[in-house]
Recover the amino acids of this structure.
């Protein structure tokens, strides 16, 4: 089940991170959108790993 949580976390995190620049009038194709998408994806992977570890206990 670990892979499913990691994939879901990466997908949702990247989508949320890429959307953030739109809140201040930026573009989906801006450098900040790409960087925040990567950061959101990494945060989502970390969160997915933590959720999976908590469910095993």
């Amino acid at each position: 089940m670990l892979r499913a949580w990691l994939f879901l976390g990466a997908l949702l995190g990247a989508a949320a991170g890429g959307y953030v620049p739109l809140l201040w009038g930026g573009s989906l194709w801006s450098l900040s959108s790409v960087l925040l998408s990567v950061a959101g994806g990494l945060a989502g992977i970390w969160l997915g790993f933590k959720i999976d570890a908590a469910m095993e206990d």
About this structure: The longest helix spans residues 31-56.
